[in-house]
């Protein structure tokens, strides 16, 4: 006898993982294009996409700076002068296409979790270099231990990453003319008769001037007699 399906099976739904959002600016986009251009030796779309995948792997691993420009400009990591050298105008259309693809979630299918690469043909005596792809003149590899585990934090898969473009707000520099009033437009305040005192040149009251005392040297002093009462 077949059992009736449980309620939990009926109510179960596929849960899609929540994407982690990373903001980027026009400057970050330029940094991504610079890394793809100079590191892949101006190669092709596959070479650009491979380097772009490494940049995004580093960004989402948490072990590197939290912005695209921070990843690309990190010292002794990418090509010297990657932030200052001139990018050929002829390469711009293909670079724009590759940058849009990477920021839109596309990755090189063979690069996988690789966060490192070097010029193709070079050899190094390290046992932890697990090569996964060759593209654009570079050999891409993951660092793995003897047990096969990654030695670096694993990057997020592309389907768990959402790139959010943030335009940089600029302050308007438009200058407006300064209008100054003319002489006939300036109001002249009228005096208040209740609070304004008038000053007259002619005194309105007499001023008493003290006269000098007479001298007492030639004056006669009359004697004064005192009469005792009751005597």
From TrEMBL:
Cell wall hydrolase SleB domain ranges (all copies): 45-141
InterPro entries for this protein: Cell_wall_hydrolase_SleB, SleB_dom1
Gene3D superfamilies, A to Z: Cell wall hydrolase SleB, domain 1
Keywords: Hydrolase
GO molecular function: hydrolase activity
Source organism, top-level taxon: Bacteria
This protein's record includes keyword DNA damage: no
Name of this protein: Spore germination cell wall hydrolase CwlJ-like protein
Organism: Rhizobium paranaense
